[in-house]
Amino acid sequence: MTVIDASTLAKYILKEKAWEQIEQFFEEDLYSLDLALIEVTNVIWKHHTIFRRLSLNDAHIALTILKKLHNDVLTIENSTVYLDEALNVAISEKITVYDALYVVAASKHNKLISSDKKQVSIAQELNIDVIFIE
Known about the structure:
The chain is α/β, with parallel strands linked by helices.
């Protein structure tokens, strides 16, 4: 089983560099955190409001794609079950709790797919199987 983080989901939904590499993983048992849905929605907002890279219509299409992945492909877990361990990892590794949550979830599910270099590095240090999508 594999955990996919928000950075990778956002990359896929927004069709950023290397987004095509991500689609193959949707055929696996793929997990993510409830936090990812919020994080990716915020990225969509940022690409519309701040960067002006998405029209309002495209922002809504991106959100529809995210919800479809949530309904059809992803098993979404409640991130609060990982809070204690995530705080410990965040403190010891000097990363955000957000990133630590994905690392801890991946430690339970055996693999992490991420586009976040620091998060990937920490996961590798903790002997978690990692797929880095640059």
